[in-house]
Design a protein that fits this description.
3 helices, mainly alpha, 77% helix, single chain
Length: 134
């Protein structure tokens, strides 16, 4: 439906709009699942590399209290943390997308209800303005 449209939906337009909104919602939900999986994998890889680097530094005689800071400063560990943080941002954006599509589906439902009220038999005429009795 375009912004200029002023006609109520007929049955076929309403079902097409509902189907389109449902498919968009399914796509958003799948994108969120994919982003969550990618974020979890990036988190796992980062934590394993961090733990390995901490143990490596300690094995070289560095005090435990300093090992974690040194490990985080390692280029490869820092790159993995960056990747993890980027994937978290993608996950956050996917969650917002899913919420937006949920709201869009509610809007479609409201437009369908409006169309039923304005044109109960599917007429495609401009709705009459409501006139109040004087």
């Amino acid at each position: 439906m375009t912004a200029e449209r002023r006609q109520p939906w007929d049955f076929y337009e309403a079902t097409a709009a509902a189907r389109t909104a449902t498919e968009a919602q399914k796509g958003a939900e799948q994108a969120r699942r994919d982003a969550a999986t990618e974020h979890a994998e990036a988190e796992r890889v980062y934590r394993k590399a961090l733990a390995k680097k901490i143990a490596e530094h300690h094995g070289e005689g560095v005090a435990w209290t300093v090992c974690q800071d040194m490990a985080r400063g390692d280029d490869s560990v820092a790159d993995l943390r960056y990747e993890r943080d980027v994937k978290k941002g993608v996950l956050d954006a996917a969650e917002q997308r899913a919420w937006r599509h949920t709201a869009d589906r509610k809007d479609v439902t409201e437009f369908i209800q409006w169309s039923r009220i304005v044109a109960p038999l599917g007429e495609q005429a401009e709705p009459e303005p409501v006139r109040r009795a004087a």
